[in-house]
Amino acid sequence: MLRIVVCVSGGGTNLQAIIDSIDSGKLEDVEIVRVISNNPNAYALERAKNAGIEGVCISPKSFENREAFNEAFLEGLKEANPDLIVLAGFLVVIPLNVIETYRGKIINIHPSLIPSFCGTGFYGLKVHEEALKRGVKITGATVHFVDEGTDTGPIIMQKAVEVKEGDTPKILQQRVMEEAEWIILPESIGKIAKEKK
Ligand code: GAR
Asked: What is the Cα–Cα distance from 38 to 56, expressed in whole angstroms?
């Protein structure tokens, strides 16, 4: 059984995709042991609760300084004893102590075809705004391992999505989620679970 912790900041549709894949039996030998949010109001925490998964909030705002938060975040991960940490729309830069402790065991979903539209400042809707501004005809999503850089780690899976005439950032974001993110994130976790067997 691959024990995963899923880290979230917002709506949690990618978390939901993982939960649904486990429930439907598509994703085997994987258990979500904890959901961690930096945002107490994240709807993702509601999704965890509805699925009977432990959800905890570890917010930088509750700590005196960044170091204290980094320590608490690492503790929050360690307590759950995960084999894999999944960043599913987690908008906190992963501290070095966590990367060093879990090297090769952290993955992230990014809403573009890396190396396009990634790196510092490219997150959420912003990614799709920039893709539309540049006028690309194809975009997509990438699942990759997390290292010290921003969106620089080895790529696990990518899926292309068509940009259509009249797309707004929101319409494109939804299509990228439906046609790419919600598919390749559970698939990547499944691939890692198989390799662990
Ligand atoms: C997703 O589109 C994810 O790819 C993106 O945030 C969204 C979270 O949605 N992540 C990043 O931009 C990371 N750089 P969700 O909370 O509904 O899963």
From this structure: 9
Contact in structure between 97 and 137 (CB atoms under 8 Å): no
In whole angstroms, what is the distance from residue 12 CA to residue 26 CA? 19
In this prediction the pTM is: 0.97
Task: Give the catalytic positions in this structure.
Answer: 110
Ligand 1 center from residue 59 Cα (angstroms): 18
The 10s digit of each residue's pLDDT in 20-69 is 999 999 999 999 999 999 999 999 999 999 999 999 999 999 999 999 99
- For the domain covering 2-196, report its CATH number: 3.40.50.170
| 76: exposed, middle or buried (Cβ count in 10 Å: 0-12, 13-18, 19+) | middle
10 Cβ inside 6 Å of ligand 1: yes
Q: Are 180 and 140 contacting, i.e. CB atoms less than 8 angstroms apart?
A: yes
